[in-house]
Amino acid sequence: MHELDVLPFPASPGHGERSVRWRRAVLLTALAVGVLAFLAMATSARANGVPLNNGDVLVGTGNGTVAHFDHSGNLLDTLDNGTGAFYSTGMCTDSNTNLYVTEFGQENISVFDVNGNLTHQTFGSAYNSDPESCTVDASNNIYVGEADGSGTVLKFDTSGNLLASYNPALGGRGTDWVDLAADQCTLYYTSEDSSVHRFDVCTNTQLPDFASGLPGPCYELRIRPNGEVMVACSTEAVRLDTTGNIIQTYPIPGASVLFALNLDPDGTTFWTADLGNSAGPVYHVDIATGNILTQFNSNPPQGQAAGLLIVGGIVVSQPSMTLSPSSQSQTTGSSATVTANLTIGGNPASGKTILFSVSGANTASGSATTDTAGNAPFSYTGTNAGTDTVTACYDANNNGVCDSGELTRTATVTWTGSQTDPAITANGVTLTVPGTCETVATFTDPDTSATASEYSATVTFPNGKTSTDATIIQTGPGKFRVRLCQRFAKAGSHTMSVTITDVDNSSNTATVQSTWNTTSTGSGIKTSSKARRIPARVPYAVRHVRGARHSSRARHARRARHFVRRRWL
């Protein structure tokens, strides 16, 4: 008998095999519920595509994963690239907050988008040995430092194409951790020794060390906007002034290997993580006081928190730009202004070119240069109702074109209210020829793209009656005539008032007087409805009553003639 059949479930006497089947069903149901519960727990806060927001904390927890926490240390998501790489090390983001994660030992970088979704399981090529850190320049090019082998620094574009490679002088171990200065040329790096080294990527030359004699080995470093440098050196973090001298140290109680370090977006605090503690503790520290503000465990599955990134954290090589207002409403015919504010490394960037373009209901383009506060305003006039998207682009290479990878931001402008149209002008006419349908007015619109369907015409006759049966006919670009079918009952001069109206803007009108001279009864212009002759049976009565002035037929005839007169204008 199967082992599931002998489990000690209570059975009702006399049920035999049915009780066995019942026990089996209960057990299988319990197992199914347990499996589902286990799967639910296993996938909790895992690969849910949670957006990466400023201030969020990302920890490289290994096995191809990055733990995504909020600023307070609450787990929001676990990003998984599916490679199972033992170490998830240094990370960086581009201007669109795409996340690049180095995989030490895997010779690879994986990429996630701003919503935490995996977009590239593999990125780049030509890795020599153990890529461990990365940083991004103002044009969204990615620099990757390698801990072992030749220690080559590789430069990629956002598509993973290799643009350049550099061979800086090595210290204890490769170009372990890298950071690029705001000048876009000076690469600061550590080599797991007691120094901070420098290399010029613009001239491909080695520079003097920035600092030496530190309590090494030292690992991840970050340049501050004021030129100071923060670096993680085993049991403490170190703050260096602009000449490389130690001005403050930050010992973390119980820490054994402070490996990772990032600057917070607030500019006054930093974060670090302990590689040597299997709980993966993460610390948030005040730069001025050294006080630990927040501490939580990242619990890496392989026991080492080898990478750290603060979303929106200060990286001096990367510009940051905002557009204000982000949305606005304006009346057509007026002007809208958006202002770009550009900072590099947290400081206002002056003298930089911002390119602007407008798409949507209106189109426009232009450029502006940032002032000492980093502001560059742009104004344009909207003539069409609808919504526009205004795009600002930081022209980092000053070539006058918004290149792929350059920093862009967008704002919206909604145009409402009456559209300001060029005024239409009209001319009356004098008609002296008989006809049934004639032109009773002409008019011109300065907008040569206008069409006949944009207008209507109303004709007012001498007796106060009106007709809206006129037809608008286009005779050329911006030129039109008003054609009406009407008939007058009496000979003489008939003056009509013709009003032309823009159907989309009722305030844009023109009114003229036109004259129709008729020489005989019934000549002129005949309407399609109101001036229609009386039914045939009435004129039949008129034609067949002769010499019977006082008879019943004569009375009917007089009434018919009176009716005819009332039906004519």
Written description of the protein model:
The chain is mainly beta. The chain folds into 4 domains: 40 residues, no CATH class; 254 residues, Methylamine Dehydrogenase, Chain H (7 Propeller), CATH 2.130.10; 98 residues, Immunoglobulins (Immunoglobulin-like, Sandwich), CATH 2.60.40.10; 108 residues, Immunoglobulin-like, CATH 2.60.40. It is 9% helix and 43% strand. It is built from 3 helices and 42 strands. The strands form 10 sheets. Strands 26-33-32-29-30 form a 5-stranded mixed β-sheet, with no helix packed on it. A 5-stranded mixed β-sheet has the order 35-42-41-37-38, with no helix packed on it. Strands 3-2-1-24 form a 4-stranded antiparallel β-sheet, with no helix packed on it. Strand 14 and strand 15 form a beta hairpin. Helix 2 packs across helix 3. The longest helix is centred in the N-terminal third of the chain and has 26 residues. The chain is elongated and about 115 Å long. The N terminus and C terminus are likely disordered.
Short account of what is shown:
With 569 residues, the chain is mainly beta.
CATH architecture term of the largest domain: 7 Propeller
Radius of gyration: 41 Å
Tally of DSSP β-strands: 42
**Shape, principal axes of CA atoms:** elongated
Distance between the termini: 110 Å
Features:
single chain; 569 residues; mainly beta; Methylamine Dehydrogenase, Chain H; Immunoglobulin-like; 5-stranded mixed sheet; 9% helix; 43% strand; disordered N terminus
